[in-house]
Design brief:
The complex is a heterodimer of chains A (309) and B (156). Chain A is α+β, with helices and mostly antiparallel strands. In chain A, α3 packs antiparallel against α4 and α4 runs antiparallel to α6. In chain A, the strands form two sheets. In chain A, strands 3, 4, 5, 6, 7, 8 and 9 form a seven-stranded mixed beta sheet that branches. Chain A has two domains: 163 residues, no CATH class; 116 residues, Nuclear Transport Factor 2, Chain: A (Roll), CATH 3.10.450. Chain B is mainly alpha-helical. Chain B has two domains: 78 residues, no CATH class; 78 residues, Arc Repressor Mutant, subunit A (Orthogonal Bundle), CATH 1.10.10.10. Helices cover 69% and strands 0% of the residues of chain B. Chain B is built from eight helices and no strands. In chain B, α1 crosses α4 and α7 packs across α8. The longest helix of chain B has 26 residues. Classes of the chains: A alpha+beta (309), B mainly alpha (156). Chains A and B meet through α1 and α2 of A and α1, α2, α5, α6 and α8 of B.
Amino acid sequence: MSRPETQLREYFDAGIERVSVEDVIARARVGEGGLRPLHAKRNLQPAWAAVGAFAATLVGLGGLASVLTLTPRIDGDAGAGAAEGVEVGGGTIGVWLIAAAVAAVAAGLAVWLVRRSTKPTENEDEIVSDQGKVMVMETIDKADTEDRTTENTEHRSRWPIVVIVVMAIALVGLIAWMTLMMRPNSPVAAPTEIEELMQEYGVAWNAHDADAIEALVAPQYRVHAQEGIDYDMEGVRNSLIGYLDSMNWHTTNEGPFYAIETGAGNWLVSSEGETITRSGSDYPTMDALLIVKGPDGALLVADHYFMGG
Amino acid sequence: MEPDERQAFTRFVKETEPRLSYALAAAYGLEVGAEATADALAWAWEHWESLEDKHNPAGYLYRVGQSKARRYYRPQVLFPVLPATEIPTVEPGLTDALASLSKNQRVAVVLIHGMEHSEREVADLLGISRWSVRTHADRGLRRIRHALGVSADVTA
């Protein structure tokens, strides 16, 4: 047995591929040209891709929610045609985590599939040409294995892409859904009919005119207030109007209005203002009205909630 | 690059490449070591002006090679068993013994005991003290001897 030192020298002398100046210059030029070895380089690890996607999704959704929540409210004066929604859903952290987990799995799987489909097989060898360009050649063991080679190529090039595309579509859909969930009811101009209805409705109430009120409300109309007050139109006519008359009640509840379309042409409208009585006291009030579309298409008040008045 | 610079670079490669290639091969295995060496020297070609001014260009380039090596897959076998026809006197257990050493031990033992570089050269390359290099080299050689069942110097 020779000395270990000698063995070390012999082993490395035989095993090391030495690099000449020409090799170096050639490789540098290949690098400048953007050509790099295809397979030997380490790529993104699936685990890191999953972690990155998880973090990016959480940060992205959180950032989006923050931006939407912090968007300053746009007030619109009554009659100015401006209305807005102020409610921002934002989703919950649980939903965010689900989305982040899905993104992480999708990213990890995608990277894993890409790596798997681009890893060299046992038959592939890297060959460095004299120009330093790295090529991949596939050695075919037998001359009659053309079918096998073709089959392998097809196998590696199709289904990972299909899976990746499906996952990407699912992810995009999920993100779109999340965005929709978090989207505030964007400020929209309330229809002119709503503004007119609100103005006429306010005037009718201040006039304590039950007929005028009835003309603007739906058959199922009810008025709700604190302490169990709940009147239908008949109750308003027979009890509430008389009481308001005795109180010399009127309201400045003329806006701003906040209108949210709840679907099927129905609107939920709230407004701020003050209620003034004969004693001279006034106090802030808020009203919420559910406005529905009547049989003839006209907008009518279906429910009226007094709050704070 | 000007002809003078090219000559200087050629001299630098001839002086540095052996130490660098053996060090990176010992550290990261034969395959990755060769790629990292070529990458590091290619980097040197591209950044020759700045490298020339370095106090310890070989050591700097070794660190460049370390960075380049991380971009490659770590092979399952760092030191493959070479055909006995090429190296008839090398024991089969040498590769496993080498792989069992720490990275710095491998570099130190290969460069100092295998290639007979000085401790100072290796210390400059690795960026550690001569005493550390000596310790790594001695411990590495002791472990290789132990693994190969060599208790005393044998014939060369």
